[in-house]
Amino acid sequence: MTLLRITATRTALRVPFIGTKTTTVTPVSLSARCYSGHPIKVTHYESGWTADGVDDSIKGIEKYCTQTFNKISQVGLSVFPKDLYDVIPRDEAHGRPAHALMLRSHKLQEDQVDPSVRAIARCGAGTNNIPVARMTELGIPVFNTPGANANAVKELVLCGLFLGSRRVIDGINHMKDLGKQGLARERVEKDKALFGGREIKGKRLAVIGLGHIGAATARDAHSLGMDLVGYDPGLSVKSAMKLPRNMDLADSISSAVANADYISLNIPYIKGTPEEGGTHGIIGHAVLRHMKSDAVILNFARGELVDSVAMKEFLDKGGEGRYISDFPDDVLWNHENVVIIPHLGASTGEAEDSAAAMAAETLRLYLEHGTIRHSVNFPDTSLQEKDSNHIRITVVNKNKPGVLSAITDVFAKHGLNIVQQINHSRGEIAYNVIDIEPAAGDSHDFRELQKELTMHDGILSSRIMGGVAGNGYARNIDGTYYA
ACT domain: from which residue to which, for each copy (predicted)? Predict the structure, then answer.
């Protein structure tokens, strides 16, 4: 088993240790420098829409429309300024096309994504309820809120530590039974021996996955006097700096759990078996055989990470091992050494407020600036603030040769000077943010340029920013121009 020390990692990476100094992070400003030049002409609900598809009263609304599918925290939704955004529950939109979608647990269907939708944000970390692959094909970024619910989940993991150490729930249920019989006072001292346990101080905790939740769990477990070992093949320098000093790092899950009294799972679910590069059933026979017979496994990540049949066999061997999970399990739900919690990890008002606020801020950055942050399918992209006399245009295209040059050729053809631009790609998708200096004149007509640009082979969508909120978006949907 190979173990590394975090202190050694800091030295090797030549990253200065900050100690206990508190760093204040200044939020990114959402107040864009508005375009102050001549009026911009764009096609608006005139191409690709049926004549009766959009009401004239809707066409005249000069605001972004964000539609929600679940009950979203009002604290988070307040990030949207009312003079620039209408935030409407989907079932109250009455045919008004959405510019952005926000959701929590709703399972999104493709037919719920209007052609006008520019972005989708999930108030939470997982995006399994969104058809991300299909949205990528359509050129729509999907955002999540990593870390927004980390504290809430971490606190429940700590709760799981105690539930796995003491048979508190069994004791509570026993006292209820005695109370019904009127025997509680008579039996309490005698029966408490049935529910003995152990302390966590001095015990070894293996943290599998050292992201926001895993790192927070490690820090608090360290403060409770626990010995720590972690495993994360993708551990970054930034994440490593957040871990307790003297925490050991293992080179595999098996080596991390080998001598651990407690194991906390904090890794993402990736479809496919471990042999296929996924994490489905990653805690199976191959890992469980390395665990101590009295190990306590804490799963507050995803139920599918654990092979339930293999876990049952592990627990049935007669040891004192226990499994604490935040997810339903058809195999283990009534096992005497299993505690199943009804997915309460992020179910706090604070977590919901934080996730909704982060999602709203992310959507604002994208809609108002073209900035991409916390996307699960698009590359992080940010172009410095533009001059108020310049016009920002964004383009989403397939990541293939020749498309970028075609984009710049269109601007050159129309006599427009590119002041600054950025092009980033991620997998099969590429994203461009371009600031142009408009030609002289009393108004700027981008209707023909945008159509030519959007309908070029490989282009999925384009946005001309700086005009009326909600206007200036165009898509190429199977050869049909929607604008």
Answer: 392-467
pLDDT, position 46: 66
Tokens, residue 35: 């375009």
Which pLDDT does position 365 carry in this prediction?
Answer: 96
Backbone angles phi, psi at 194, to 5 degrees: -75, -15
pTM comes to 0.80
In DSSP terms, 110 is beta-bridged to none
Domain count, the chain: 3
At residue 48, the pLDDT reads: 64
What single letter denotes the amino acid at residue 272? G
Helix or strand run (H / E) with residue 263: strand 262-265
Q: Do 318 and 383 share a structural domain? A: no
Q: Which two tokens stand for residue 152?
A: 């809430």
Nearest CA among 324, 327, 289, 326 for reference residue 200: 324
Q: Which of 98, 153, 156 has the alpha carbon at shortest distance from 125?
A: 153
Let me know whether 145 and 230 are in one domain: no
At a CB cut-off of 8 Å and minimum separation 6, what does 35 contact? 388, 389, 390, 391, 392, 465, 466, 467
* Distance separating alpha carbons of residues 126 and 301, to the nearest angstrom: 10
pLDDT less than 50: residues of the chain: 1-2, 5-33, 51
Helix 184-191 / helix 168-181 crossing angle, nearest 10 deg: 150
Pairwise CA distance, residues 120 & 126, whole Å: 13
3-class DSSP state of 10: helix
Structure tokens at 279: 């994490």
Tally helices (H) and strands (E) across the chain: 15, 21
Residue 410 structural domain: 379-483
Q: Are residues 217 and 75 in the same domain?
A: no
